[in-house]
Predict the structure.
Amino acid sequence: MKVLIIEDELQLAQSVIGYLSGESYVCEHAATYQQAMEKLCIYEYQCILLDLMLPGGNGLQLLEEIKKRQQQEGVIIISARDSYDDKIKGLQIGADDYLAKPFHLPELAARVYSVIRRRSFQNNNILQQEELQIDLLAKTVHIHDKPVLLTRKEFDLLIYFLGNKNRVISKNALAEHLSGDIADMLDNHSFVYAHIKNLKRKLHEAGCGNYLKTVYATGYKWEV
């Protein structure tokens, strides 16, 4: 899952990125209001961590812009401004959660997971589709009750497809999801095809139905 950290304190941002990356999230960082707007106009995220005091603009104004997009990303406000009014206003605008600084990184990771689970998977820890079962917490996959070993990237792709059922996803979007904003600097997206090919092979060999479809000249779709 892809997370955008909007935070001008570089040391804090690096600590958050390091911890969440270890929890299998793809992390990107914006240090100013303008940088955040530029990323939000180009990329999609599953969760946004938003500081309220930013160089060049107010975090609550940025939250209003995020909500105008009407997409599915969750927003967690992380700010030293632990005032009641800021918290209420942020939640009224549409933030999913509010965490005051200083905070413990495991708590932040738990809240990120909770927001993504609530928005993408209806608050479920176990995803079930016919013979396929996925445990989001344990990061395990079973088909016909037998374990299927996936790499981190393959598991991430599978979760991404299940969170976007019946939606055609382009190779560019998949590259951004797997690699973050460095995807634009890659010569090609052949690595996406390689991960997709391996994922489809492992699911097929384990007896999973052919849910992952290739959409010619467009991308891929998980059909249900």
